[in-house]
C-alpha cells in the first residue's frame, strides 16, 4: 500500500520517502487552512463562502486578509463581506467552532496585495507597534477569533529593502506574544520557503520561540513571472535546474535550511497548494522545463487570472486530461495544446505528506479552500486534495491536533 502512490513515475527517491519510518515526537498533526474572503464574489460553481467550509476538515482556519493602517491599527479591507451590516463574514466564520469545538479560527494580517513597506514602517516604530498589539487584541476579542496569523510578504524585500526589518519583525512578534499570552491567544506567521530568502527576512530561532505555527509557503517557486516553464511546487530540483543556477530553488532545500537554522519542526506546517501555475508555450512542441513562454496560461472561469488555475477549474475544464508525472521533481503537470499546467494531485500530495512526516514537521498548511474541488463536481468527492492529507495521515497512524 505504501508504494502504490509512486507507481506512476516510480523512482528510488520515492521509494525512500515511503519506506522511511517517522520519529513520532507528536502523533497529532495540524492542518491549517486559509479562507480567501474575496471568493464570495466569484461566479457560478467558483463562488465560495463560509458555508462551503467543512469545519472538521482542518484544525485551524484563517480569514484572509486584514490590512494595516499607517498608524499600526488594523484595517478591515472589505467591510461589506465582513461586518454585521453586510455579509457578516467574521461572525459566520467564527461560528464554525459551534460545529467543531476543537477548531481554532484566526484572522490573517497582510497578504501579497498589502505590500511590505507599510509593515516595515510600523514594526520600526514602538508607538505603532503598540497600536498594532492593542488593535489586534481588541479585534480578536470583539469577534471571538482565537488568534492572529501574521502574513507579511516579506521583511526586507519587495518595496522595503530595510535590513532592520528582520529584527524589527521579531520585536513585533515578541510584543504580540507577551500580550497574547495574557489572553491565551494563538500567534502564527506565513513565511517564504526558499533557502536564499530565509537569511534576508527571518531570525529563525526567535520566530521559533515566539510563534505557535510557522506556515511555510512551499509554492510559487516558478510562474509566468519567470518568462519560462517551471513547476511551482517542485519537491526536488531536476538536473536542468543547475544550468539556470536554480539547484537550491525547491521545497526540500528550503525546508532543510529552515530546520538547520533553528526552527522547531513541531511548529512548522508544510504548505500544500490547491492551485496551478500555468503557461502559454511559445512553441507547443516544446513543453520542457525552461522552454520559452509568451505569458501566463489562459485564465480560468473562477480565479480569472492569467497564469493561475484552481484545481477545481482544471478538473472541470479538462476531465479527460493525462497527468505527466516528473519522478525527479515529484510533481505532475499536464500539457493541453499550448497550455502547460503545473499543479499537485493526490499522488504528489501523498508524497509531500510522507516527506513532512519523515521530517517530524508539526503539520500542514493549505492554500486554499476555494481552489480545491470543494463542490465534488469532478467525481473525486469534496476537497480531494485536502482529504489526501487526511488519507496519508491515517495510513501512517497520525491523527489531527485537538488544541
TrEMBL record:
**Which biological process, per GO, is one annotated for this protein?**
chitin catabolic process
SMART domains the record matches: Glyco_18
Cited CDD domains: GH18_chitolectin_chitotriosidase (cd02872)
- Keywords annotated in UniProt: Disulfide bond, Glycosidase, Hydrolase, Signal
User: Keyword Hydrolase, does the record have it?
Assistant: yes
Q: Which Gene3D superfamilies match?
A: 3.10.50.10, Glycosidases (3.20.20.80)
Report a single Gene Ontology molecular function.
Answer: chitinase activity
SUPFAM superfamilies per the UniProt record, alphabetical = (Trans)glycosidases, Chitinase insertion domain
Stored InterPro entries: Chitinase_II/V-like_cat, Chitinase_insertion_sf, GH, Glyco_hydro18_cat, Glyco_hydro_18_chit_AS, Glycosyl_Hydrlase_18
Q: What is the residue range of the signal peptide feature?
A: 1-20
Q: Pfam family of this protein, just one?
A: Glyco_hydro_18
Family note = Belongs to the glycosyl hydrolase 18 family.
**PANTHER family (UniProt xref):** CHITINASE, CHITINASE 4-RELATED
The identity of this protein, by name, is GH18 domain-containing protein
Source organism (scientific name):
Hypothenemus hampei
Amino acid at each position: 500500500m505504501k508504494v502504490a502512490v509512486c507507481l506512476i513515475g516510480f523512482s528510488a527517491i520515492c521509494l525512500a520517502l515511503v519506506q522511511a519510518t517517522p520519529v513520532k515526537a507528536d502523533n497529532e498533526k495540524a492542518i491549517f487552512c486559509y479562507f480567501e474572503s474575496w471568493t464570495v464574489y466569484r461566479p457560478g460553481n467558483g463562488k465560495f463562502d463560509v458555508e462551503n467550509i467543512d469545519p472538521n476538515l482542518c484544525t485551524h482556519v484563517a480569514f484572509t486578509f486584514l490590512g494595516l493602517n499607517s498608524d499600526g491599527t488594523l484595517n478591515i479591507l472589505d467591510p461589506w463581506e465582513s461586518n454585521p451590516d453586510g455579509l457578516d463574514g467574521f461572525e459566520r466564520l467564527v461560528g464554525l467552532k459551534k460545529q467543531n469545538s476543537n477548531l481554532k479560527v484566526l484572522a490573517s494580517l497582510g497578504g501579497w496585495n498589502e505590500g511590505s513597506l507599510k509593515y516595515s514602517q510600523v514594526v520600526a516604530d514602538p508607538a505603532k507597534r503598540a497600536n498594532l498589539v492593542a488593535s489586534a487584541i481588541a479585534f480578536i476579542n470583539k469577534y471571538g477569533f482565537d488568534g492572529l496569523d501574521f502574513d507579511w510578504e516579506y521583511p526586507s524585500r519587495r518595496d522595503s529593502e530595510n535590513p532592520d526589518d528582520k529584527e524589527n519583525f521579531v520585536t513585533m512578534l515578541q510584543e504580540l506574544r507577551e500580550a497574547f499570552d495574557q489572553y491565551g491567544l494563538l500567534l502564527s506567521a506565513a513565511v517564504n520557503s526558499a533557502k536564499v530568502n530565509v537569511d534576508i527576512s527571518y531570525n529563525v530561532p526567535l520566530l521559533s520561540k515566539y510563534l505557535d505555527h510557522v506556515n511555510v509557503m512551499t509554492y510559487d517557486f516558478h510562474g509566468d513571472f519567470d518568462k519560462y516553464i517551471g513547476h511551482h511546487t517542485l519537491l526536488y530540483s531536476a538536473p536542468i535546474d543547475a544550468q539556470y543556477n536554480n539547484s537550491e530553488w525547491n521545497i526540500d532545500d528550503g525546508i532543510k535550511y529552515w530546520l538547520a537554522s533553528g526552527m522547531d519542526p513541531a511548529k512548522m506546517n508544510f504548505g500544500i497548494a490547491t492551485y496551478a501555475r500555468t503557461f502559454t508555450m511559445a512553441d507547443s512542441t516544446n513543453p520542457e522545463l525552461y522552454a520559452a513562454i509568451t505569458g501566463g496560461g489562459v485564465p480560468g472561469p473562477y480565479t480569472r487570472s492569467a497564469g493561475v488555475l484552481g484545481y477545481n477549474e482544471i478538473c472541470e475544464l479538462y476531465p479527460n486530461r493525462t497527468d505527466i508525472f516528473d519522478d525527479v521533481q515529484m510533481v505532475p503537470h499536464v500539457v493541453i495544446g499550448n497550455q502547460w499546467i503545473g499543479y499537485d494531485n493526490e499522488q504528489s500530495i501523498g508524497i509531500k505528506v510522507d516527506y513532512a512526516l519523515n521530517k517530524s514537521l508539526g503539520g500542514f498548511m493549505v492554500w486554499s479552500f476555494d481552489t480545491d474541488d470543494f463542490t465534488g463536481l469532478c467525481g473525486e468527492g469534496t476537497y480531494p486534495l485536502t482529504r489526501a492529507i487526511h488519507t496519508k495521515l491515517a495510513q501512517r497512524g497520525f491523527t489531527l491536533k485537538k488544541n
